[in-house]
Amino acid sequence: MARYMATHRRCWAGVLAGGLLMLSGCEAISPPPIPRGALIEKMDYDQLVLNSSTQNDALSILGSPTAHATFNDNTWIYISMTKDLVPLAHPVVDKQQVLVLNFDNAGVLRKMNVLNKRDAIPVNMASGVTPTPGTHISVIQELLGNVGHYNPMSSMGSTFGGMGGGMGGGPMSGQGTGNGGVGNSMP
User: Fold this and answer.
1) Which residue, among 33, 39, 24, has the nearest Cα to 86 in the 3D structure?
2) Number of neighbouring beta carbons within 10 Å of residue 55
3) 64 burial level (CB within 10 Å; 0-12, 13-18, 19+)
4) Chain-centroid distance, C-alpha 2
5) Bridge-partner residues for 114, per DSSP?
6) How far is Cα 186 from Cα 17, in angstroms, rounded to an integer?
7) Confidence class of residue 23 from pLDDT cuts 50, 70 and 90?
8) Which end of the chain is more exposed for a tag (fewer CB within 10 A), N or C?
9) pLDDT tens string 157-174
């Protein structure tokens, strides 16, 4: 019995050592951050000059914006984010930046605003339930609701022996896979 316990302990010690080795390896090999959106750095948008740069300048320096404001095409929004992968969890936002450029009607840059992760406003899901009228059906209504509405031959048409239309002409035309209803009756 003592020999069995000693072997059992060595087995568990090996499993624990292997597990710790694997877990320590996970931390040593961390995946690179995942960039998302328009990867714009400070040195990029510092090239834009207020009251002088135009929309064409912004396009050539920064590229196309991620979005435009809903009611104003002269407000351009560049969104960039870097996420870090965390083992056994959702990715964590490491760096977040939103660059908002406001142009006048002539296309000249009038305002530039840079928002970071600390400027974000957390939004929580609403806890209530939206009522949907007309969906309270009893089991009996659900079972008997379709009685008389189901006809397996209604959607098959003349292809499988139904009468009329189909691929070839009028009723009883003799064309199609099911011969348009001709010759499909049992003796």
Assistant:
1) 33
2) 17
3) exposed
4) 58
5) 99
6) 75
7) low
8) C
9) 555 554 544 444 444 444
61: its two tokens: 């320096």
Q: Token digits for 157?
A: 């048409």
Q: Which tokens go with 139?
A: 């089991």
The answer, as to whether pTM is greater than 0.90, is no
State the Cα–Cα distance between residues 96 and 121, nearest whole angstrom. 12
Pairing of strands 92-103, 34-37: unpaired
Strand 109-116 versus strand 72-84 pairing type: unpaired
Q: Which residue has the higher pLDDT, 113 or 29?
A: 113
Lookup: tokens for 33? 């951050």
Half-sphere exposure of residue 170, counting CA atoms within 13 Å on the CB side? Answer: 0
Q: Which of 121, 118, 102 is nearest to 48 (CA)?
A: 102
